[in-house]
């Protein structure tokens, strides 16, 4: 039975899992959910994931609901190149775990909320953008970018060392979400982080761009409605 993957490419963690699968040529059955249509709120999907979020994998009846756990499971099961998530080098593995744990309340906790405040919440509730909250999350994004620059990257090319890992695709997928709402200056203002983002993209550009196509589309749509003076 094929590995089933439930996802929406507008979801940052979904993109990371999708990208990992594509890069490592792991076969899977697409189970695309349109979050904008509320397809993740159906009773049928709630039986698969009671949290009603994406991504989710169903590996022959084994269901896993968290993107970091999914990536580690896939890396180990499919024996992918060791740079993604080292199996025997415990220190290298721990550095990846360090970023994956840190990112929830930092890279993801700030960038995802800024995206929601600028695009999702105003459209869903048909109300003006709350600039107080926008400024709050901009400040948190800047703090996260500083953390990425000074603690994780320092003088190395990738977040956890000299080669790309699951940490890099998780981090890049979170920050590229800001491009969708004209806020990419928040990470591009750091030459170190900007260069790292470009490095991740160029490493696997065709898959990165395919995974990010909905982000690029959203960028074009919001260009007229969200200006630099926002």
Automatic annotation (TrEMBL):
Pfam families linked: GST_C, GST_N
GO aspect biological process, one term: glutathione metabolic process
Taxonomic lineage of the native organism: Eukaryota, Metazoa, Spiralia, Lophotrochozoa, Mollusca
GO cellular component, one term: cytoplasm
Protein name per UniProt: Glutathione S-transferase theta
MF term (GO), any: glutathione transferase activity
Domain GST N-terminal: 1-82
Record organism: Haliotis discus discus (disc abalone)
Residue ranges constituting the GST C-terminal domain according to the UniProt record: 89-224
Subcellular location: Cytoplasm
